[in-house]
Fold:
Amino acid sequence: MGNNQIEKIGHATQADTNSDLRESEIRLRQLFLSSKDALMTLEPPTWQFTSGNPSALSMFGANNELDFTSAEPWRLSPEKQPDGRLSSDKAKEAIEIAMRDGSNFFEWTHRRLTGEDFFATVLLTKVQIKEYAFLQATVRDISQQKKIENQLRENEEKYRLLTEMSPDCIKLLDLEGNILYINKAGVTEHSLGNEKDKKDFKLTDSIIENDKSKFIDAFEQAKKGIISVLEIQHTKEGSNRETCLETFQPITGSDGIISSIFVVGKDLTSIKHSSDELQNKVNELEKMNTFMMGRELRIIELKNEIKKLSETNIQKQVS
Structure:
C-alpha cells in the first residue's frame, strides 16, 4: 500500500471521526434542550452561567438565553443561604468540591430574575473535554416539597403539644406490644420515672387478671386493622386509675402495612364512682319506696278493718 493510499485512508478515518463527533454533539444538544430539568453550564474562571436550556430560562424567569447568561451570578442567589453563610463563599466551596470529586449534590436557595427566592437541589457534574473542564448544573425547584415538609413539621409539633397536654393516657405500641411513645399523662399514671421504666413497662402488667385477655384480644384485632374499644380495670400497683376506656387504632405506613398500634386510655374512675354512688342511691330509694308502699298498703288494710268493725257495731246497736 502506497503513501497516497495511507494518506487517503487517514483523511477518511478523520472525516468519519469528525462526523461521529458532530452527530454526538447534536444528540447531546438535543437532550440538553429538551430536558425537563433545568440544565446550565458554568465555566472558569468566573464560573458564571454560560448556557441554559429552556427549562432553566423558565425557572429563573429569563426571557432568553442571553438574558440568563448576562445576569451577574449574585443576582441568581440571595446574599446569604439559610445557614447564614454568604452565597458567594458557599458557591465557591461547592464548585471546588465538584471539580475535585467529579460531582457535588446539595440544597441551595436560588433567586429568580424577578427577585423571588426559591428552594432547589443542585447537582454539579464535571465535564472534561481534552484539557478543558467545566461544570454542568442540574437544578430542581423543591419549593413545594419544602412547603409540605414545613407544614408536616408544624402539624407534628401541634399534635405533639396536644398529645402532651391531654389528660388521657396516649401511647404508641409496636406490633410486639412494646412502648414506642407514651405521653406525660401516661407516664404519671403508670409512675414511669425514666426511659428504662418506659422500656421495661408492659401495659398488661397494670391490668387485673380478668381483663388481660380482653386487652390482648383487642390488641390482636388492631394488628388486623380492626378498631376496638373496651373498658378495663387496672391494678393499684400498676396505675393510679382504677377504670379506663381503651381505644385501639391501627397505624399504617406509606406502604399500607400496619406498623404500630395507637392506644388511648380515658379515665373512667370518677364516672364509675359517680355511677356506683347513683346506683346506691337508686337502690336506697327503691327500698324506701318499697317500705312506703308497704306502709300505705298496711294503712289501707287497717282503714278497711276499722270500717268493717264500725259497720258491725252499728248493725249490733240497731239490732
About this structure: The CA atoms of residues 225 and 256 lie 11 Å apart. The two ends are 175 Å apart (CA to CA).
